[in-house]
Amino acid sequence: MRPAHAAVVLAAGGSVRLGQPKQLLMRHGETLVRRTTRLVLESGASRVLVIGGARVDDIHAAVEDLPVELLVNTEWQEGLASSLRIAACALARHDAPTLIVGCDQPLLAASDLLALLSSAASATSGCAVTRHQDRPGIPVVLSPSVLRTAHSLRGDRGFRDILNALPQDGLAWHDAPGLAHDLDTPANVAHAIAQGWLDPSASGSNA
Q1: Which residues are within 8 A (CB) of 3 and not within 5 positions of it... i.e. 6 or more apart?
Q2: How far, in Å, CA of 31 to CA of 16, rounded?
């Protein structure tokens, strides 16, 4: 039987451009970090890591009743790479794919995660990415060997360059236009509220 995948929820960022923690924005009465974590758990992950950094207490409080591992990134201001290195270290002995998900895609669905996992299982690279204007983006499924390259990452670029360097015919792509809607700016949030993707209050009780 194929070993179950692990999953990482990236929730350490400071949401500087937004001006409030995007992880604590609400959709249907649920914070995005909790919603994302719940969807990841529904994917059947054997381990789920939630990495907090800025507002770590609030982030972890939102998911502390779920069966997840709570990790703290004290170097979150460096950018995405710092969280990915923590994830790779925690999963150093995990010999199965890892699903990596952010918290700023209000239209993320469980079907997206299952499609990525299924595609990765049949890809020669063992990896599957979400297409963002023909660039690889998250959610993403990484093979153990690719995840272990996280030690070389710096700043805020993540695995994009490493994935781009793989043979492209061996990399699985997931097309989900709804995942292009993220929450980097107040305008993004206002649009999401207008579309009914976020609750009108647009923040968690601790935001």
Answers
A1: 46, 95, 96
A2: 18
Token pair in block for residue 14: 């400071």
* E strands present in 53-88: 69-72
Amino acid at residue number 134: D
List Cα–Cα distances, 191 to 11, 103, 182, 195, in angstroms: 22, 17, 10, 6
The predicted-structure confidence for 86-112, as pLDDT tens digits, reads as follows 999 999 999 999 999 999 999 999 999
Beta bridge partners of 136: 131
What's the pTM?
Answer: 0.92
Determine the straight-line distance between the first and last CA of the chain, rounded to whole angstroms: 43
Ramachandran region of residue 133, left (φ > 0), alpha (ψ -120 to 50) or beta? left
Structure tokens at 37: 């974590």
Q: Where are the beta strands (DSSP E) in 73-185?
A: 98-101, 128-132, 135-142, 172-174
Tokens standing for residue 96: 């199965």
What domains does the chain contain, in order, with CATH numbers?
6-194 (3.90.550.10)
List the 47-52 sheet strands across, edge first.
69-72, 47-52, 6-11, 98-101, 135-142, 128-132, 172-174
- 92 touches 18 (CB < 8 A): no
pLDDT over 70 (residue 205): no
**pLDDT tens-digit map of 122-139:** 999 999 999 988 888 899
